Amino acid sequence: MNEDITLVIKNTSIAMQKAMDFFESELIKIRAGKANPSMLDGITVDYYGNPTPINQVGNLNIMDARTLTIQPWEKNMLQPIERAIIAANIGVNPQNDGNIIRLFLPPLTEERRRDLVKKSNGEGEHAKIAIRNIRRDAIEQIKKAQKEGLSEDASKDAEAAIQSVTDEHISLIEKYLAAKEKEIMSV
Question: What fold is seen in the domain 37-104?
Answer without folding.
Answer: Gyrase A; domain 2 (3.30.1360)
